[in-house]
Design brief:
about 150 residues; mainly alpha; about 65% helix; elongated
Length: about 150
């Protein structure tokens, strides 16, 4: 091995180490944010943004460290799946928190769901059961979705 190759390996290993430490720090910050923040939107922010960035940094570090194509391809797929699932799961959790009334309405800048009638409070009551068989109720609560 030439001295240049050894120097390049050492630099890439150092870069990999720094990226892993930064990624782990971001994942730790995301975990602390989930525990410490009070409202659902803040927790969703902590669960998605720093965690995804931390995972990306760790995947890049592993790719730099191992320098093999099959590892890079696998980690690229992991990152793409994370990009696809993190916003979707955060959206679903946030929407359910809104429907259950767990969000502080004063903290919302815009409330598009209020106009769409997406809360359970706006749903039909059990007296408004169209079928008369209780099919409009789900899980003991009210549903805004019509019975099938």
């Amino acid at each position: 091995m030439s001295p240049d190759a050894v120097g390049l390996d050492a630099v890439l290993d150092l870069v990999s180490l720094i990226l892993i430490l930064l990624g782990a720090l971001l994942c730790l910050i995301a975990a602390i944010g989930l525990l410490r923040l009070r409202d659902v939107p803040s927790r969703l922010h902590a669960a998605t943004k720093p965690q995804v960035l931390g995972l990306i940094l760790i995947c890049i570090a592993v790719s730099i460290s191992l320098r093999e194509w099959h590892v890079i391809a696998f980690l690229a797929a992991v990152v793409v799946i994370q990009f696809a699932t993190a916003p979707l799961s955060a959206h679903m959790v946030g929407r359910q928190a809104y429907r259950n009334g767990r969000l502080d309405a004063g903290s919302l800048v815009a409330d598009e769901l209020r106009d769409a009638g997406a809360t359970d409070a706006d749903a039909t009551s059990e007296d408004d059961d169209e079928e008369g068989d209780g099919s409009d109720r789900r899980r003991g609560g009210r549903s805004r979705w019509p019975a099938r």
